[in-house]
Amino acid sequence: MAEKIDIQRPSQTAKVTMATTTYTREWLKGLPEREKQSYVDGILRNYVGGIHRAAGNGKTSHLVAINMQEILNPLGRPSNMPTLTMDDLVKGFQRIFPDSSVSIKEEWVETKPNTREFKKGILIDWS
């Protein structure tokens, strides 16, 4: 003889509960700046490895060559991407390396014998 199985269906009037989050006016007004900072932090993550390698090789500073044109106008730039300046990136590096000197630097760098290139970037100096 087959065993009888009782299947219960969930109530069709089940309540859906949703967590309530409160957003203050200050929080909403500060959102564009937080999103900009998050975007800057994402850019800077691409350069931190080079700084770590320089420190690991015994150097006390590193020039991060940044092409602002590529950062400000990347291919496929989303329309909601914040407007950035070199100062925004300097402030970001200052947050990441608070006890280092961070500044915009322009210099001629010898890339090969008898060949020099003009480099512009952000210098992080931890000496």
List the helices and strands and how they pair.
Layout (H helix, E strand, L loop, with lengths): L24 H32 L4 E5 L2 H5 L13 H11 L4 E12 L2 E11 L2
Antiparallel strand pairs: 1-3, 2-3
Helix pairs in contact: 1-3
Description:
The protein is 38% helix and 22% strand. It has one domain. It has 127 residues and is α+β, with helices and mostly antiparallel strands. The chain starts with 24 loop residues before the first helix and ends with a strand. Strands 1-3-2 form a three-stranded antiparallel β-sheet. Strand 2 and strand 3 (115-125) form a beta hairpin. The model has no long low-confidence stretch (mean pLDDT 82).
C-alpha Rg, in Å? 26 Å
The main sheet comes to: 3 strands, antiparallel
Assembly status: single chain
Classify the helix fraction into a percent range. Answer: 25-40%
Strand order of the largest sheet: 1-3-2
- The CA-CA distance between the termini, in Å, is 86 Å
Uncertain segments are none
Task: Report the count of strand segments.
Answer: 3
Strand content: 15-25%
Order of helices and strands: HEHHEE
Summary, kept brief:
The N and C termini lie far apart (86 Å). It is built from three helices and three strands.
